[in-house]
């Protein structure tokens, strides 16, 4: 029997609650405020990802990162917890950039998603 598609609105809610429980547990109020401000900016894109049934949702990419993060926190393994959280955030960022949703929503100019052109290195001036 095929499992039902996940409820996008519940995914969005659970994802935010999970992340903010972890961030609040860090007991760093200034950092929490910064994350909240960033979350407000990126929230619509996360909604697009989680509600749209992207590959990340179908393959449960975030769930695997969340499970690894939770397991690391239970073991009090800060390095593994950081790596799991970083992996979760990076996989979401890769999706967002590959989907082009920041450009289509006006959050980034189109040229910002292209690889940066290498600038010629300045040649040091010869000593006088």
Describe this structure in words.
The protein is an all-alpha fold. It has one domain. Helices cover 66% and strands 0% of the residues. It is built from 6 helices and no strands. Helix 1 runs antiparallel to helix 2. The longest helix is centred in the N-terminal third of the chain and has 23 residues. The radius of gyration is 19 Å and the shape is globular. The relative contact order is 0.10. The C terminus is likely disordered.
What's the arrangement of secondary structure elements?
Blueprint: H1 8-25, H2 29-51, H3 55-58, H4 61-74, H5 78-99, H6 101-104
Give me a quick take on this structure.
The protein is built from six helices and no strands. The protein has 128 residues and is mainly α.
